[in-house]
Amino acid sequence: MKVTREDTENRQALLTIEMEAQEVEESMAASYQRLAKRANIPGFRKGKAPRAILERYLGKESVLEDAINHLVLQAYEKAIKEQEIEAIARPEIELVQTEPVIFKAKVSLSPVVQLGDYQSVSLKPDPVKVTAANVNEVIEQLRHQNATWESVDRAIKFGDMAIFNLESQVDGSSFINREGVQYLVIPDSSSPALGFAQELVGMNKGDEKNFHIKLPEDYPRGEFAGKEAHFTVKMLEVKQEILPKLNDEFATQLGPEIKNLAALKEEVSRNLKLRAEAKARADFEEKVIDAVVASSQVEFPPVLIEAETHRMMHEQARQFERQGANLEEYLKSIDKTEEQLHEELHPVATRRVTQSLVLGKVAESEKIAVNDKEIDNEIENMLKNAMDKKDELQKALNAPPSRDSIRQILLARKTVDRLVEIAQSGKGKKGKQKKEADKK
308, 349 in Cβ contact below 8 A? Predict the structure, then answer.
């Protein structure tokens, strides 16, 4: 066996393997033994037919194909050992010719990560501020959520609730046909099409109106995209919103722990601050990770991106299943193919793989580890939120694959915490340079 190796970009190696005639003949003999035991040849018991008869009965090409299939796998395993290659995925194998037998194997090599000077990263999170306007905006939303609706004898205005029967067609085909539709008349509403709400303004109870709207080119239902829809609306009722008065009585209706309007504002402010702090923390972590990744050099084979892309697609499919739908229905609704979704997820998968590899290298550099006790604690926290079937869930979470997955999540979390600590400490080179500049 003769092996030549060519290292290509993105941590891949191309092996060209040429087999000796003797190796092919030995594999042919082994294939004859295997096939003879399975072949039903008239006049012979299984495994007793001469090789020449077997080749005539099955065809020499079939015997050769079986021999090459076994030979290639064995030769590949031998070749990567000779080349001291640690492959991380199945190879892509291409048979070049059969006389002599030559095949090529594209091998995915383990990633290489060279960290930059991540200790020099110095950043500060954006300050969190909750204003009175922010609080008032949330309280107004609460008033709308707790509003009542009453019928009025006047023309529709924006902000009203319209109740009507709807008939519509596109190119003579049925589009949307419903009775008793309850529709909130909002200027920028795109349901069922942008401009529909404007057509309702000015209508009174009992009015009937015909109008048409051109649907956008990116309309979710692809068969109607870019076409003109003809609508007929029969107005049944007009309702206006009655907002509750902003007082202590309104506040106490929102929860037993809220005693008055001042307490409501305090509670809203506290919740807004918690959410703002969580978002600021997440944004800051992302900035720190991006800075560390930008200073590092990472090279990995495309197979890792493909694996992450398929994992993301599988997770999306599971989410749709939990909602009683499926990925195929979703793709059809947005007029996209699975291949197009795969292509859209490719950049996200690339980013995730890159970040994961860099964080893994930082964890190694910082000697960060996760012990079994930490995994046990995390599982306990996860079980606290379980409503039922806790025993089944506990068993599933303690299975080796699940524990390993939890270990990786905790390891990434601890590594990010460490990088945030470094970035905020001001001890990095950038932090020192800024302090020196501030002194001047």
Answer: yes
* Cα angle 322-326-331, degrees, rounded to a multiple of 5: 135
pLDDT band at 43 (very low <50, low <70, confident <90, very high): low
More confident residue, 31 or 108: 108
> Comparing 265 with 172, which gets the higher pLDDT?
265
- Among 164, 146, 334, which Cα is nearest to 237's? 164
Q: Give, rounded to a whole angstrom, the gap between the first and last alpha carbons of the chain.
A: 70
SS3 12: strand
β-sheet bridge partners, residue 15: 5, 105
Class of 2-110 per CATH?
A: alpha beta
* pLDDT tens-digit series, residues 331-378: 876 778 889 989 999 999 999 999 999 999 999 999 999 999 999 999
Q: Which H or E run includes 182?
A: strand 178-184
Nearest to 139 by CA among 246, 274, 11: 246
The amino acid at 1: M
**DSSP string of 245-311, one letter each residue:** PSSHHHHHTT-TT--SHHHHHHHHHHHHHHHHHHHHHHHHHHHHHHHHHHTSEEE--HHHHHHHHHH
Domain ranges in the chain? 2-110, 113-146+247-297, 148-242, 300-365, 370-440
Tell me the whole-structure pTM to 2 decimals: 0.76
